[in-house]
Specification:
Length: 104
């Protein structure tokens, strides 16, 4: 299980860094299919910064769970890191879709 955690955490970390560092808004689901009119209503830099930071934080939970499992922590630690990962992702998506945090 720890291999899955470390592999998935590494992939999510890479995506988070790419989105945040290079403002890769084309990798954000929904935003990449929006019309130019809809895109102009959002602050793209703030949006990509938040999504990148969200993915980096979520990947940290997976990597920590995998590394703790390697270090000899009980087996449920790796599974618990997936629950925390899902909680972070769901919380971030709810935050993104409520209010006008990223509107111009």
């Amino acid at each position: 299980m720890w291999i899955v955690n470390i592999l998935a955490g590494t992939i999510v970390l890479f995506l988070g860094i790419v989105i945040r560092a290079f403002n890769a808004s084309s990798l954000i689901a929904g935003y990449n299919t929006a019309s130019n009119e809809e895109r102009s209503m959002y602050n793209e830099e703030a949006l990509t910064g938040f999504v990148g930071a969200l993915l980096i934080a979520a990947s940290a939970t997976l990597l920590a769970g995998g590394l703790l499992a390697v270090a000899g922590a009980p087996g449920f630690v790796a599974g618990a890191s997936w629950l925390l990962f899902l909680g972070i992702i769901i919380g971030g998506v709810v935050y993104l879709n409520t209010g006008n945090q990223f509107r111009r």
